[in-house]
Design goal:
Elements: H1 2-21, H2 26-47, H3 54-65
Length: 66
Amino acid sequence: MTWLILLYIAFLVSGFAVMKTQNIGRKEKILFVTITTIGCILWGSLVLHRPLDLNKAIGMAIDFIF
């Protein structure tokens, strides 16, 4: 699990370095962090042998927002 967190941090750092050289906007950076975090959560759930049900998670998020 530690390697997954280190890989997540390395991917974020390298992604922000690339975005800094290309003058990417704030919305794109937020989208990058969001997608990367969702990917890390999904991989973490698989590593822990407790797969996350995306339909249930999306439903709970919609109920929470509205």
